[in-house]
Every structure is written in C-alpha cells, then in structure tokens.
Amino acid sequence: MTVSARPNRREFVALAAALGASLALGPGKALAAPWRERRAAYPQGVASGDPDAHSVILWTRREPGAGASAYRLAVEVAADPAFRRIVARGTTRVDASTDWTCRFLAAGLRPATEYFYRFTDESGAGSRVGRTLTAPAEDDDRPFRFAFVSCQDVTEGYCNAYKRMIFEDERRPPAERLAFVLHLGDFIYEVTWYPEDTPDGTKGGRRLQGNLRYPTGEKLHDYHVPADLADYRVAYKSYLLDPDLQDARARFPFIPVWDNHEFSWSGYQSQQVWDGVARPAQTLKVAANQAWWEFQPARVQQMDGVHFDRFRAPPVRNAAIDHYDGLGTGQEPNNLAAIHSLKIYRTLKWGRNADLILTDNRSFQAPQPDGGGPFAVAGFPLMYPQDVNEIFDSGRDYNEGHPPATIRAPDGRDLPNPAKDYPRQSYLGADQKAWFLQQLRGSQKPWKIWGHSFGTIPIRIDVQNLPENLRGNWTGGYGLLNGGYDIDHGEIADTLKAEGITGLAIVAGDKHSFWAATFQKHLPPRAFEPVGVEFITGSISARGLAESIERSMRADHPLRALYVHDGPNGPDGRKLNMSLLHGVRSSLTFKETGSLEAARAVRNPDLAPHLSFADYGGHGYAVVQVTPTELTTEFVCIPRPLTHAETPDGGPLVYRVRHRVPLWQAGQPARLIQEVVEGTPAFAT
Ligand SMILES: [Fe+2]
Questions:
Q1: Distance 238 CA to ligand 1 centre (A)
Q2: Which of 395, 509, 516, 582 can pair with 603 through a Cys bridge, CB separation 3.0 to 4.6 Å?
Q3: Residue 289, Cβ neighbours under 10 Å: how many?
C-alpha cells in the first residue's frame, strides 16, 4: 500500500486558516506546566471531526473561571494513550468571542491511524484524553465501517445508544472498529419544554429533565425557543454535559451536518414558521450557524471563501422574503447573507471505496405552501392524495407553468390551489444542486454515500383498498404519508440512469424510525426502477411516531387497526409499520385473525416494493460496512430510552437487522438482502 502525498507545511497553514482553526503540526516544545486531568475545567469534554488522510479537527471548551478574560490552551496529539510518542502540538487563545471553544487542525498525520489528544491550559489543568482516527489514503481499498445517528433529545430521553455503540466498538478487532460517526442532525433540539410548564412535569408520558434552560429565550405556547446567540450556545453546552454523548465524541471522530432543530423546528432558510405564519429570523439563523461552528469540529467554511480565524457573523436584519428563484431560494439580501454565513455541504473522501457526500437540506429549502389541510385524506391528518401532492410539489411550475387555480378536495369542494404561486419544492438550491450532481458524476469510487439529513423515502397507504365504510369520501388512489421533492429526486434518478452511475447509498435521519429501501423515480403503477438504496436510522432518543400514536389515538378510532395493535402488553404503535409495508388489508386481516401469515397473504405487492424494512418504534443507531463490492447496513435497535442504562453495554437490544447491498452494474436494479441477526423487529419486515 502506498501512501498518498502528504501536504507540506505551507499547505497545512493555509488549510488551517481557511477552516478557522489553529494549527498543531510537529512535536514542538514540551508544555511548561505538564497536563493533569481536570475534567471540571472542560465540562463539555473533547471532540474530533472531519478527518482526512493527514489531518483531523480537534475541539474543546475551557470553562472560564471567575474573572478570566482568556486562556492559552495547548493541544498535544500522540500515537499512544500514554502520550509517550507525541506527534503534534499547538497552542491557541480562547476567550468569550467563541464562547471559550477552540478548534485545532491536527496535521501531518498518517492515514488510517489511531491518535490520542488532550488539551492543557497554562496552569496545567488538562482535559480528558480523546481518541481519533484519520481517513485512509486515496488508494486504500480495505473495508471500513462507520455509524450514522440522528435526533438526540437529552431533555426527555437518554443516550444509551452511544453507550451500546462504544461497548461494541471496544470489543471489536481494530480493523473492524468504527472509522467515524456521521451525525445527520438534530444534535440539539432548540425547542424545549420545561418541567414546570406541564401539570406533572411530563410530556407525552416522558419525564422532562429541565436540563436545558435559556438565559433569554422566548416562550411560545408551552415550549421555549432560543432568542439569541447565547441561547443557542447554552443549548450545545447543556447537551454536551450528557455523559454518553460526551464519551462518544471523545472516542470517535464525528462528521456532522445539521437538520432543522439546529436552527428552528419549523421554518425554512432564515425564516421561522410559527402557527402557520412565517417570521423573518435572519439574525437567529446567523446565531444558530455561529453556535454550530463553535461546537462542531467540522471542516467547513464561510461561503464567501475568505480565510477566517473565527466565525464572522454577517450583519443582517430580519426581513420578509418576497422573491424566490426557480428552486425556491429567497433572494432577499439578508436571507442570502444569513444562509451563506456557513457552508456545510462538502465531500469527504474515504480511501478507494467511497465518497461521502454531505448536503445542507435546510438552508435552501423552498417554503412549503400553507393551506393544504382540507386536502388531507379523511382520518389521516398528515396524508395527501398522491396526485394532489404532485400539484403541491410542482407549485407554479405544474403543467409547464399552468397550475390549476383550484383542486378538488376529498369532500368534493373545489378549493383554491395553495401552491399555485409557490416555487416548486426543492431543498438544495441551485448552486448546491449543481455541485451535488457534479459530485455524483465525478466520483470514481464504487460507493457514493449521500449523508442526507431527512431522507427521501416516499411512504404511502393504499387508502383505496379500505372497505367503503372506512374509506369515507375517498375516491383517489394512494395517499402519501411522507413524500415531496419528487421533481428533484426524479431528476437525480434520471441522472443516475442516463449516465450509468451506480453505488448511490443514501443515509439519513430525522424520521425517528428505521427504514431500508431502494431509491427510484417512481413507484407502481408507474415504472419501478431502483437506481440506489437508502437507509434511515432510528433516533438516539427523541420520541418516534409509534410512541406518540400509542398515547394519542382514540381507542374507538375507526382506523385504529391500521396504526395500533392492542395486544396483551398494551397498545403497540408499531402496527403502522405493517400498513406501510403490506397495505391496509394486511393490517385489518391481522386484527381479525391475529395471524401474520394470513395478513401477508392479502398484502398489496404494489404498495411499497421499495421498502424492505420499516420501524416507527425503533431507537438506536446504524452501522455501515463498505467493501469494494458490497455495502451492508446494520440497524442496532435498543428499547425506548426512558431511563439511563446503568450497565456498560447500554442495556439490552431489541433487534439487530442487516441489509446487504451487492454493488450493481449500470442498468441492473439496486437490491437489498435482509438478515435478522438478533431479536425480533415487530411488524417491521
Ligand atoms: Fe429529530
């Protein structure tokens, strides 16, 4: 194995400057005050992120003591955990301007190598020791493994999944250990409930811990959201006190992207949407980006491309957006300045086997038309007829620029088309989309792994197969529970097919549920041609739909059998999995017979040929193994994390399920081969 060319000193200096990082290169001089571990001085621990073959970003935060105005921090990087073989040192100053956080580019490292790092201030007060790994060299085709995660809510759940991940990793041979953890967003939940705001300190059956409180904040209804930069910083600082999250960041390099909650639960670009009304929030978008940059050790830059030693917040004011380009990017200058204040879309190269292409799905997301409510399928508040969804999706571009003025609602009324003046639904924006397609076309690797915060998998219900008494006034075909962006996804599928690009594997989060599927332009009755695969991981701790349905669905709801199985252990919301995988007839038959076999016998094979696995009740994480000819994703599902697991293994497993994907040739369909390794995934297959 040859090693790819190592950049020279000048190149590392330039790279560190471009990333707003201090440089740690070469062994330098020994510290004046030797390291003594004082974890209390670094309450958020340590972290590393975005490794390449010769460098990695290292992070910590020095809690300021009373009256402190700045600290001089040194970092040491060693080849061994006892720090006998130090390979890099660097120093930097931290102060209030970055909320006492720092980032170093540890450089001049060897590819695919394990390193240890620690921080020390002038007094010798030292951080805990972190461990990190560099990426493989360009020509390294050895298999590698990584985990992907999303959606950790530490205010109403526990990070037992990280404990399990660490436990399993420590027991694997070095060659099989995780190379990194890809975090697909909802690292924090900016919207939070305080225990005193509910009658019994719980919400939806979960105990509220009250461990995130905003110094300023804004209360809307019964929840709180950040009001300024200090609030966003407090969110990260509070979350990083979680011991298991902190242990994970100290053990693995993280590769993060954001989803919605790093800025705002509801909204798009730099706008929040509360109670259906858009509220300009350019200043908050910049604040959210700044806090993300300060607390996430990622190889990202501000979009003007200038070198920066720290995050430069562009001056913006909150202003409404009244003009959008063809892909829905608001052209209001303050919006553009805010969303360009940090560029997180990027590609990480992983040896000869994979390119990891990460997109920003929120900063350029088109506004969604409001007023779709009356078009929802009766009894399914979140579901729209598939044909209505297409009109919403295309906006003003529908029917070559001639959208209908009205749409027939399920109750027979012709109502105004709420999307008729909206830009089509898109989320990458013009520049990022062009860049993304170029990454796919230009990749020489067998696997193109697309880190996608919220996933693309369409989910539908065959409402048309319900008996008449349950169908209500429904006259259409499939109802779409989750979809949208059909035009963008269709274009990507067309590109893959036309140019013979194979090996697209999408990994996603956000859905608080596990999914394994193929990626294609259309589902039946249109031509079904899978050109990629997709995996979505269950949340680390945030609640899933099955949990919510179990608590909220009326016992006498006529459609209950589609959502809930009332068994000897109480209501089980995972029944919804069956409806989505096999169809409404299967769920109704199961209710009548209690027989999985009988339920399967009446399944609708056209409903979801793309789905291999669906579990709205699962939590945990996913592990991907990549070889030159095969990609395997393992779902590691843990019980609902309502209490902290005190055992070192993070508690029991619910199941471990693998999907193997052999690399396919151009023109062949992508396919998934399922193996249940451990446990029982109820209603999920
Ligand atoms: Fe989430």
A1: 17
A2: 582
A3: 29
Distance 513 CA to ligand 1 centre (A): 10
Whether 1 shows a pLDDT value over 50: the answer reads no
The arithmetic mean of pLDDT across residues 266-290, rounded, is 96
Q: Please, what sign has the CA dihedral across residues 670, 676, 681, 683?
A: positive
Cα 538 to ligand 1 centroid, rounded to whole Å:
9
How high is the pLDDT of residue 300? Answer: 93
Residue at token pair 């293994």: 649
Give the contacts of 227 (CB within 8 A, at least 6 positions apart).
Answer: 214, 216, 217, 218, 284
CA of 78 relative to ligand 1 center, distance in Å: 36
In the predicted structure, residue 244 carries a pLDDT above the cut 90 = yes
22 CA distance to ligand 1 centroid (A)? 32
Ligand 1 centroid distance, CA of 508 (Å) = 11
Parallel, antiparallel or unpaired: strands 144-149 and 406-408: unpaired
Distance 616 CA to ligand 1 centre (A): 13
Q: What's the rounded Cα separation, in Å, for the pair 122 and 106? A: 20
Residues 6+ apart with CB under 8 A from 452: 184, 359, 361, 506, 507, 508
pLDDT over 70 at 97, yes or no: yes
> CA-to-CA distance for 678 and 661, rounded, in angstroms?
19
Between CA 263 and CA 443 the distance in angstroms is: 31
Pairing of strands 414-416, 406-408: antiparallel
**Any bridge partners for residue 274, and if so which?**
277
CA dist., res. 75 & res. 78, Å (int): 10
pLDDT of residue 386: 82
Task: For 568-621, write each residue's pLDDT tens digit.
Answer: 999 999 999 999 999 999 999 999 999 999 999 999 999 999 999 999 999 999
Distance 185 CA to ligand 1 centre (A): 7
CA atoms of 550 and 505, how far apart (whole Å): 32
Residue range 279-301, pLDDT digits in tens: 999 999 999 999 999 999 999 98
Helix axes 282-295, 229-239, angle to 10 degrees: 30
Taken in order 329, 332, 337, 338, the sign of the CA dihedral is: negative
265: tokens are: 């639960």
Write the pLDDT tens digit of every residue in 301-315: 887 665 566 788 999
| Mean pLDDT of all residues in 68-79 | 97
Tokens, residue 363: 């900063």
Alpha helix (H) residue ranges in 538-607: 545-552, 560-563, 575-582, 584-593, 596-601
- Report the percentage of the chain scoring pLDDT > 90: 87
390 by DSSP, 3-state: which? helix
Other residues' Cβ atoms within 10 Å of the Cβ of residue 606: 13
Instruction: Say whether pLDDT at 79 is over 90.
Output: yes
The pLDDT of residue 408: 87
- Our measurement of the distance from residue 122's CA atom to the centroid of its chain's CA atoms, rounded to an integer in Å, reads 38
Rounded to an integer, the average pLDDT of 14-30 is 90
Which residue type does 443 have?
A: S
- The CA distance from 642 to 659, in Å, is 28
Contact (CB, 8 A) for 248 and 226: no
Alpha carbon of 542 to ligand 1 centroid (Å): 6
The predicted pLDDT at position 480 comes to 83
Gap between the terminal Cα atoms of the chain: 42
Distance of CA 656 from the midpoint of ligand 1 (Å): 22
Query: Which of 232, 217, 361, 346 is CA-nearest to residue 290?
Result: 232
* CA atoms within 13 Å, Cβ hemisphere of 608: 29
